[in-house]
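Q: I'm teaching a short session on how sequence maps to structure, and I want students to see two examples side by side rather than one. Could you give me a first protein with its sequence written out and its structure tokens following it? Keep the formatting plain so it prints cleanly on a handout.
A: Of course. Example one:
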Amino acid sequence: MNELEQARQQIDEIDAQMAALFEQRMQAVTMVAHHKAQTGMAVFDASREDAVVAKNVARLQNPKMAAYYEDFIRHTMAVSRSYQEYRLGLDKVAYQGVEGAFTHIALRHLFPHSKALNFAGWNEVFDAVVSGECAYGVLPFENSNAGDVSSVLDLCYQYEGIHVVQMYDQPISQNLLVVPGTALRDVRTVLSHPQAISQSSQFLRANGLTAKASANTAIAARQVAEMGDKSVAAIASAETAALYGLEVLVRNINTDGDNTTRFIVISKETPASGNRFSLLFTVSNKPGALSEIIQIIGRAGFNMESIKSRPHPGEKFQYYFYVEIEGSPMSEKGKLLLDEMQKLCRTVRLLGVYSREEPNG
């Protein structure tokens, strides 16, 4: 037996031990799931996971393996979360659109073992979560080029029982998809979601292409596949091309090479832990009211990463505000901030507490 064969044999023996330990671990995970069901605890607890990761990495004797072992532990815990959700009947996740849409791709990354249920509209995603048909919903929230998805933010404001429990930043590569055998000179019209069209506007103008809006990128790709017309193309992901039998004619046509969409995960879970939180609030329509709130946030020692204003439903020329803040509202200073805002704002609501997840590499 040579050195390679010996190493492979050793790996096989270790894998056999790990399979048995995996089953033992998942039995313990089942007990955790039952406890969480009885006590109303959320499945995901970012601070608990961070503590477990740190404790396990500290056990290593070889520090050069630390980053790799951290990846291993985080993946193991993600699998455990999925299994808990399955055991608790929380493995259905809602999204808007069809298979292959960027939201569906984000969902598959966030919930690889869950059942993805698609709906025609964003409001239907919210309804599915509120009714309990789905435990979670995944929605686009903001793009680094085209800005925020205002309709989704408005729905967050309108559905008071909904919270944001996670954010995920997904790099978006827009591609020109065509019927096989199509050349760029054949294309006259391009179908896609309005944001994808906006993100690819320079390419479209440079090539004299007319854009028409579709409900989302995957639906546009499906339409092109069904039409079979070489004069019509779609802007969508490479994954979508494979789903609908299209070819990627031109890759990365988005104007900004660093094109990223931020997705949110919504749930009826009570916000628990994370390194960021978001608030929805209204103030009296008088000079300095908003400025006072911004100053309070700064004096409390928090970094306000984002602020947006939107028309208040049912009140002409009145507005509500969304802020995203780095830190935890569960800390002592976080609780003091919320108490002070409650006194000065007309309304204030903790929308979400989460740790923003960004893709590796």
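Q: Perfect. Now a second example for contrast.
A: Example two:
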Amino acid sequence: MNYQWYPGHMTKAKRMMQENLMLIDLMIELVDARIPLSSRNPDIDELGRNKSRLILLNKSDLADASVNREWMEYFKGQGIHAVEVNSRSGAGVKSIQAVVREACRDKIERDRRRGILNRPIRAMVAGIPNVGKSTFINTFAGKACTKTGNKPGVTKGKQWIRLHKSLELLDTPGILWPKFEDQQAGMRLAWIGSMNDEILQIEELALELIGYLRIAYEGVLSNRFGIKENGENFEILTQICIRRRCFLKGEEPDLRKASSILLEEFRSGKLGRISLERP
């Protein structure tokens, strides 16, 4: 399967972000803690090249805790400010304000030398679809400022949110990039739900995920579904059909329904804390 999803609104969103770069001091990029590299959009990296940078490893509660620590060390070694957060519960969010000031220390010092006091830091919040930008902003602000949803493409346009006198955020739509040079990265993005499932071959995606889990997290599938993990990936998916009573007419296994169940339970954390890549 060729993994690609770049609808027209993403081109428009990228253009809007380019037009607002002159207004911001800081680029806050949210990545999915399960795939911190694959969920870093190279276009966003290029847009923020001359800005102060902060990376938030969001959905950290869904990723392997030990691997999260490895990624934090990795970004620290790259000289990049990073914070591990769970936007839904608020874990890690309180520490962000201090890291924002540290990331913008040079800007704050320049303002002080010019006699400019208390000018708010203006930050653009960017990331791929369904990475949790709007949920993060609402949690950070302590109130519902933006529309959220557990699917890609909820945020359609830009929105400025003034958190307090020292920080303003610009919410932006989630964007991917026009062509994935690394199809493995595309597959990981599809696994976590950053593409429209309707354009994907769900059964093939589930079979690939089964193959990964059997190697990296042996026993996860047997514990969750009460099945044996020996045999081919197709046989395991068929076992999930039987255990979850996913049948078409004539007791034929409904592989698509079972595939959707597997992906939903992975994405929601019901399979446990799972990371899909390591530094």
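Q: What should students look for in example two?
A: Point them to this: Confidence is low (pLDDT under 50) at residues 148-156. Also worth mentioning: The longest strand covers residues 26-32.
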